[in-house]
Design brief:
Length: 388
């Protein structure tokens, strides 16, 4: 920057108080910023009486509704309003503050400007403009540098590499991606991308859904009757109940459901395989029920029931059953009735029987198989009749 000479400083001191800054800048060949800086450095002030005399006067009425119409309805910028009315931009800013007119955000202003004015970059992109490409790369590099600086700070804070930070927050502390984003103060979309790049596996969706219990659930304390009314609520329960049942059975059949064999089912499956008894696990009946084990060609169903959930009568009295126990008992009775009406033989074994008397359970299954085999032999096929 060109230094001020003693003559320039002397002229500046003599003329500053009664000369406009732009005139001083033109005479001394300086910028307006240089004029303001030198005035501050020398502690010089304008002569107010002189400034009032030369100040531009205008008969324009800066009414609130007029300014709002130009700004909001006609989508004019504050600079364009100033140019249209023939005043400075600071004058418009003054009246905006005076009338308490809410200004647009920088982002919204740019969007309107891009749509209404002839912008040099309009219609250009990284594909067809080298200048846009350079600017985009420059911005990208700037963001990348800031991210790397932030990651270095976080790694020092947590005392481990960034992948380990995200992995531990997600898998050990069981935070969601959104909570990790808030914890690290990094955009959620960036966290998702980083997890993909780091090849951090996601938890199954059902775990998150299962966590929405009690007060964590967005509909906590609200019933469908409150939301829809009793009539619509009953229709919804019926439709969604049937849909959920169908989807559950489909997932179990395709091994898509987060379903794991219980301990007693594993014991039973191992013993059946050991005895050479053919069976099918998780057998679907008419898309209505899924049974633990089935021998389809003999129409035999084998169910392994937990003592508590299926209320073993040897342990639990019918009088003191919980709501869930009563509900499961009623469902078991309905299921047995449905299967028997369709020719299935249902064998139920309780948890304590499987664990303590497994041989007796297998004995009952073998007897049922023998009886069913005998019944099949008695049935004469059409081919047998023809052969006679």
């Amino acid at each position: 920057m060109k230094r001020w000479t003693s003559d320039e400083i002397s002229y500046f001191k003599k003329n500053f108080s009664f000369t406009l800054d732009k005139e001083l800048a033109k005479h001394l060949n300086k910028g307006l910023g240089g004029i303001s800086y030198m005035a501050m450095k020398l502690n010089l002030k304008k002569d107010q009486n002189h400034i009032e005399r030369i100040k531009k006067k205008t008969d324009i009425e800066f009414k609130k509704d007029k300014l709002e119409d130009m700004y909001f309805n006609r989508k004019m910028s504050m600079r364009k309003i100033a140019k249209t009315l023939g005043v400075g931009k600071t004058t418009i800013e003054y009246y905006f503050d005076k009338h308490k007119i809410i200004k647009r955000s920088h982002s919204d202003s740019n969007k309107i400007r891009f749509l209404t004015e002839n912008i040099w970059s309009k219609g250009l992109s990284k594909k067809n403009s080298e200048k846009i490409m350079r600017l985009a790369n420059k911005v990208s590099e700037s963001h990348k540098k800031r991210r790397e600086e932030k990651i270095n700070i976080l790694e020092k804070k947590y005392g481990k590499d960034f992948r380990s930070i995200i992995y531990d927050l997600y898998w050990k502390e069981r935070l969601t991606q959104e909570k990790i984003s808030k914890e690290l103060k990094i955009d959620r979309s960036r966290i998702i991308k980083m997890m993909r790049d780091f090849k951090i596996n996601l938890r199954p969706n059902y775990e998150y859904i299962a966590s929405l219990k009690g007060e964590n659930h967005p509909l906590f304390g609200i019933t469908w009757d409150n939301l829809l009314g009793k009539e619509k609520s009953e229709i919804r329960k019926s439709v969604y109940g049937a849909r959920f049942r169908e989807l559950t059975i489909k997932r179990i059949k395709n091994n898509e459901f987060p379903f794991f064999d219980t301990e007693i089912e594993k014991i039973m499956a191992k013993e059946l395989a050991k005895r050479g008894i053919p069976f099918v696990k998780q057998f679907d009946i008419d898309n209505k029920f899924v049974c633990d084990f089935a021998i389809p060609f003999l129409k035999i169903i084998i169910e392994c029931d937990g003592d508590y959930w299926h209320s073993n009568p040897k342990i639990y009295s019918n009088i003191n059953l919980t709501y869930d126990q009563k509900k499961n008992t009623q469902r078991d009775k309905f299921k047995d009735k449905y299967l028997k009406e369709r020719g299935w033989l249902v064998l139920r074994f309780f948890e304590s029987d499987i664990k303590q008397n497994l041989n007796e359970c297998i004995f009952k299954i073998n007897n049922a198989i023998k009886e069913r085999m005998e019944e099949l032999k008695k049935i004469k096929s059409p081919i047998d009749e023809v052969m006679k």
